[in-house]
Amino acid sequence: MKNPASPKSPRNLDKHRFEAGQQCQKRLWLDHHEPVESEPPSSRRAMSVVGQQLLDLARSVFPKGILIEAKTFAKALATTKEHLAAGDSVLFGACFEHEGVEARSDILVQHKDGQIDLYEVKSGVKIKHRYVNDLALQMHVVESAGHKVRAAFLLHVNAKYVHKEGSDYPPMQLLRSADVTNKVRKQLDQVRIRLPHFQAALADDSVLALPMGTFCTVPFACPHLARCTAEGPKLPLRELPELTRTQELELHKDGIEDLPSIDPKRPGLSFKQRRTLACLQSGEPITEPFVREELRQCAHPLHFVALATLTEPLPRFEGQRPWRHLPYAFACHTLHRDGRVETTSFAHIDKTDPRPAFIAALAKHLEIGGTLLCWDKEPLDALRELLDDLPAAKAAIRTVLGRQQIDLMQLFDAGVFHPALRGHQDLVATAKTLLGKADHPDALGPDAWRDAVEKASTPRARSATKEKLAAEIQAGLAWQTEQLLELFRKYAEVTEIRLKPPTSEIPTAAKPAPKPLPKPLPKPLPKPLPGQ
Fold first, then answer.
1. Does the N-terminal or the C-terminal CB of the chain have fewer CB atoms within 10 Å?
2. Are the beta carbons of 32 and 11 closer than 8 angstroms?
3. Strand ranges for 259-299 from DSSP E
4. Burial of 421 (0-12, 13-18, 19+ CB in 10 A)
5. Could you report the per-residue pLDDT of 199-232, keeping only the tens digit for each?
6. What class does CATH assign to 15-198?
7. DSSP string spanning 33-69?
8. CATH (one of 3.40.50.970, 3.40.50.2300, 3.40.710.10, 3.30.420.10) for 292-492
């Protein structure tokens, strides 16, 4: 069924829509006809800033480059043709078009024989498949427009780069150039096959009937996820834990579109999948015995810890490397064997390096030993990076890393099943379901914390503002650690030993026996008489 005339003017298929089509043709249609217009989260805005920084840095290596500036794509296309015809060697943002498909190049180098090198700048530290697909689309359009591409290069961040605080980023050290020409050419046939299907999907609203699937959140969450979820079944297949693409296709082939329709005894299901389906069918929670045993074996004192970190693609501080987790706040509820609960928290909300003070404060609290219990131990594991980045604090870092660690999210994901949950990635949802806790205003997410840190790091931020923001972050972390403590108490089923003062009168300690007096000296012998 053809889509009725759209009020929007026709637009070419570009790399953003091409990427959307690879994820889902329904997303491609919606991105084109009904795009989601909302304020991007701070993490996305931060990545946009980093992307522009890297692009400017890469272009600085080509001092004779000419930037294609135009208000419309048609004008940019014409300007690109003029510069290439004039023999200009380096263009930034060169534009090409072929049969309704357009492409822009971050950096284009034209050789004297007219052949072209394409450079794509990416913030990642590895060569990813979608990066190669991006260049493959560019190569297809450029060559279809009548040019010959000699080579394709990916400029990506060098993971081994070590920053010197206060200095500019040296482009030849921060960025690595990878020749991906062969990888890109191997994808050209797939690009040529996909493009007609994607262009047809743009004009056919029957793609809106496509079911949801594992691809809805891979490699990123689709911007239309909320809409599709509301329109789909209450318990879609994609909520089945450990669902593979092969399983998903087989279920669709058998006409199964939601979780209640799956037989828990169906061949090929994992233990976790069978337990999830059994829990749904019975309507009763299921807790595996190993959960209680694992919790009971934890050595006291028990430190329920929550960390706040920022992932920074570009390093800012001395010795820092790209894409490191930057820890800046933590909270901890410590349960002692006698039932005492000790609380502590820390937050460094400033533009200065938070790592030394953070790790020193956390190590000092953990000096007494015991077990660390957290929700998703990735931030704890990332502290190992500081051994390389912060050598002066190795002793404190090893104090933290040397403690036994229990990831409650992983433990509960493997052994605690509830009809209202299909996983435990969200602590707020888990606490609400398993503990009956209502949503809490202090349960802030990473984007809210990033906003707070950025606000506190501005030059005009007052000390009172910084203290308030730090207190908000600490309160959010403390709320998390309190939920971890309550989850432990409920699922460990341990009666805590509480020391009570004796009711009877405390007996007086026996007095030590007095030291024996020194023996008296022997009496002196009598003096002899005269003449004797």
1. C
2. yes
3. 286-287
4. buried
5. 999 999 999 999 899 999 988 889 999 999 999 8
6. alpha beta
7. HS----PPPHHHHHHHHHHHHHHHHHHTT-TT-EE--
8. 3.30.420.10
